[in-house]
Amino acid sequence: MSEETNDALDVKGFQPRSVIYAKKLDEGFSDALAGFYSAVWAERENGLSKKDKHLLVFTIACSNLKTESAVKILQRLKKFGATAQEVKDAMMIAAWTGGIQNFTDFTPKILQEMERLEF
Question: What Cα–Cα distance (Å) separates residue 62 from each residue in 2, 42, 48, 88, 118?
Answer without folding.
Answer: 32, 23, 20, 11, 19
